[in-house]
Amino acid sequence: MEELSVGKGASGDVATHIINILNRLGLLVSHPSVIDEGVVNAIRSFQQTRGLSVSGSVNSVTLRALEEAQWKLGDRSLYLQPAPLLRGDDVATLQSRLTEMGFDCGRVDGVFGGKTENAVREFQKSVGVVADGKCGPATITALIRLTRTVSGGTPSILRESANRKDRGPSLANKIIVLDPSCGGSDHGISVNGVEESEIVYDIAQRLEGRLLALGVSVFLTRGANNSPAESERIAFSNGTNADLILSFHTDEYVNEKAHGVTTYYYGAQAHGIHSVVGERFASLVQREICARTDLLNCRTHPKTWDLLRLTKSPTVRIDVGYLTNPGDAERLARPDFRDVIAEAVVIAIQRLYLASEDDAKTGTLRIADLQKAGLRR
Description:
Layout: H1 13-24, H2 37-49, H3 60-69, H4 89-100, H5 114-127, H6 137-145, H7 154-166, E1 175-180, E2 190-191, E3 194-195, H8 196-213, E4 217-220, H9 230-238, E5 244-251, E6 261-268, E7 273-274, H10 276-292, E8 297-303, H11 306-309, E9 315-322, H12 326-332, H13 335-353, H14 367-372
Parallel strand pairs: 1-4, 1-5, 5-9, 6-8
Antiparallel strand pairs: 2-3, 6-7, 6-9
Helix pairs in contact: 8-13, 10-13
């Protein structure tokens, strides 16, 4: 299926649908018949606040986010249904309110799944309404009437941090999923004679070897010659009960001057939530890679991409450089450089689980230090 792309100058049913939603969201005050500069700016604003790639054009990801943003809590009944599951801002609001009251919905992702249904049922039991797991008028009324006992989603933050601490500092017996990007139906970006799928798969293999030596159970979402869809890789990752998921990519840009390393974690400004462990790990990876290489530090960023949002475990995406930049491409083509990246990521993983008093300065730990400290089987 051809990827949706609706940009400046577009008209027709899809463009009208987009304009109508932007008006309902208060991002547009006019109602043009085509996507003009004002609509493009409104799309950019929406993408920025939703943690999406800011392009000013609408692809399938942005369109789905626009459609989810239409729903406010109380607009419809919410319940667990066969795939596709109910999605929307109303679901995210429900999850946030339940979380603030101490009911475990898991991640606030705007998707009404089994964990959300269980949390709704537990809430219904506590307030004396029919405990059917469906969020209808009676349940919504009870939610509105009750005073929030905890604010800011603190229970979920504490729960995620506690889960990490409970696992202890040793990497032995931890489960880590490595997701080398395959670029969809093709095998990824190929620029300057360097192919993305081969680079990130090689980094994943180098990382896999190091992690196995430290007692980690490692799963790769693909092999050297297959290209599973993102939805398949997400489903596979969710079936592993992983402690961490790492997705490796390269970047590209129309201007070859763009260069550097960037990391991403799940965070949604619109709902005021983010993955605490994901943010911490993304920062550690970013700092370790920049300390050990001369790649430009393009910082860490919260995003709501499906790979970050729909995975159950803390997930970080690592863009290891721009293949459209000759310098980055030359570095990534070198096995010794990919080796340095793999070692930097291993150290970042270990630092994630170390207590603050046991942590070391960025760029100083080595794998041999971990082995001497007995942080393995």
